[in-house]
Amino acid sequence: MLTGAFSLTTTSQMELVGISEKINTLIQKNSVSSGVCYLFNPHTTAGLTINEGADPDVGDDIIKGLLYMVPSDLNYNHLEGNSPAHIMSTLVGTSLVLHIANSKLLLGTWQKIFFCEFDGPRTRTVHWKIIKD
Amino acid sequence: MLTGAFSLTTTSQMELVGISEKINTLIQKNSVSSGVCYLFNPHTTAGLTINEGADPDVGDDIIKGLLYMVPSDLNYNHLEGNSPAHIMSTLVGTSLVLHIANSKLLLGTWQKIFFCEFDGPRTRTVHWKIIKD
Amino acid sequence: MLTGAFSLTTTSQMELVGISEKINTLIQKNSVSSGVCYLFNPHTTAGLTINEGADPDVGDDIIKGLLYMVPSDLNYNHLEGNSPAHIMSTLVGTSLVLHIANSKLLLGTWQKIFFCEFDGPRTRTVHWKIIKD
Question: Model pTM?
C-alpha cells in the first residue's frame, strides 16, 4: 500500500477546494494503472466530497445549502462557536474511497474531488493511501 | 481486484432504487466467499445509501426529509435549476464500502443498498470493485 | 483480511458512543502496524461518524443539529414512528474507512470514532475488517 499526505491552504471561512489534480499527480508519480485510493481528512471542522467541478456555482450552492440547513445559532453547548462546522463535517463525511482506472481517478464527466473547509481560513492536511490492483 | 459497472434506469425525479440483488449476483458469479466491495456513483445529482428495504415507506420518508431540509429555491447560482440534487448528493454520499461474508453482502436484517436518484428520470451507472479475502 | 464484530449498548434515544479505543485494541491484538480498517454498522436507525472527541459538548451539538434539521413530524408514511432516525442514518452514513499507521488509528488531534444511536436505547453491533499493508 502506498501512503502519504499533502497539505493545502484555505482562504475563506467556508470553501470547496478542488484536489482531483493533486491525486491524479500522485497516481501518475507512483505508476498506478488500476486500484483504489483512500482519502482521509484529519480535521473535525472540514470534510471531503465529490460533486460537479465544471461550474464553480455548484460549490457555492452547496455551501449556501449547508448554511441554510445548519443554523449558526442553536443554543449550542460547545464554547468555541464553531459547532455548525462540526455538524457539517459529520453530514458531508471525512473520508472517500476512489476508484483508479487507466492511470487516473475514475470519475464521472462532471465530477471533481473537493476538500470542504467549514471553519477557515486554515492550513489543512489530507492523508491518502493507494492499493494497486 | 475484480472490476466492472452496471447501469440502471430511474423512472421518477427522486427515487430510491434497490441494488442489493445486482451486487449479490456479481458476488456469486465471481465466486467471492469473503472480501470487500466498493461501489462508486459517477453522477453529481445522485447518491448511494444503505437503509431499510423491507418497508418501501422508509425510502419515501427519506426523500420527504431531504426535500424538507434542502429548499427548492434558495437564490441558487447554478443555472441548471438542479442545485438541490447536487446538495443531496453531497449529503448522502457517492460511494459505499460493503463487507462480503458467506458469499453475499454482509447486511443487517432490514438493510438494503439503494441507488438514490435526485434529478431523474435518467439512465445511470454504478462502478464496482471487489477485493477477495 | 482480518474480520470480526463487537457489540455495544446505548443508553439514550440519541447518543454518540466513542469506539476509538475498541478499534485500537483490535489493531494491537492483531499486531497490525499499518493498513486500512473498514467499519460497518448493520442497523438502519444508527450511523458511524468521526468528529471531535475532546469536548463531549460537540457530540451533543451534533444531535441538536440533527434534531433541528430532521423534523420529528413530517406526515411520514413509515408506521413505526422512527423515520427521523432512518433519515439521520442516511445523512451520517453507515460505514467508515480508517487508516492505520504506527500500530494505531491515524486520526487528527481532536478526532474520535463514534457510533451514533438515533433510536435507542438498544444493543448494537459493529462489523470490522482490517487489511494489513
Answer: 0.98
For the segment C34-54, what is each residue's pLDDT rounded down to a tens digit? 999 999 999 999 999 999 999
CB B67 within 8 A of CB C69: no
Give the CA radius of gyration of chain A: 16
The set of cell numbers assigned to C5 is 464484530
Query: How are strands ordered across the β-sheet holding A46-52?
Result: A15-18, A111-117, A46-52
Grid coordinates 481486484 are at which residue? B1
Please state the ipTM of this predicted complex.
Answer: 0.97
Query: Are residues C51 and C111 in contact, defined by beta-carbon separation less than 8 angstroms?
Result: yes
Query: Which pLDDT does position A4 carry in this prediction?
Result: 98
Spatial separation of the C-alpha atoms in residues B49 and B62, rounded to whole Å: 11
Chain B: closest CA distance from residue A49 (Å): 6
What chain C residue is nearest to B49 in terms of C-alpha separation?
A: C90
- Do residues B72 and B100 lie in contact, with contact meaning Cβ atoms separated by under 8 Å? no
In single-letter form, the type of residue at position C69 comes to M
Closest CA to C75 of B85, A81, A32, B67: B67
User: C99, A127 in Cβ contact below 8 A?
Assistant: yes
C47 touches chain B (CB under 8 A): no
